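pinned: reference chain
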Amino acid sequence: MRTTVQLAANRVNAGQSTGPRTDEGKAIVVLNGEDRDEYEALLARYKEEQMPGCAIERSIIALLAECAWRNQHCNRIQYQMIEESGLTIETYLRTKRSQTAALRTLRRPAPPRLLPQRRQRRPLHRPRFP
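pinned: its structure tokens
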């Protein structure tokens, strides 16, 4: 729990905040607002298509929209980083395919000979009645 001194210090610090000052910082803040609008539009589209009826369905649709939006956002950032680094898209995709293949190998189940052997369960003793 915060003390009154901490709350007062937080208020003072918040009052001194003027937001981004550089052009680069201002551009980032604008993108945050656009990203929010993009997410809201995607969520509205999902709701329109799926027509969730109950609270559980609405939360699932919101989660799906968030995951889809994050995926799109990450892809956009990756492509921007590729362009800035000077790599070609083909080189990136080749690297990504190798990474995916390696991950797929890690996720593949181990061969049965490498798994610990399970002990056989003893059958329950059932008394015989005459």
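why pinned: The CA atoms of residues 22 and 84 lie 21 Å apart. The two ends are 71 Å apart (CA to CA).
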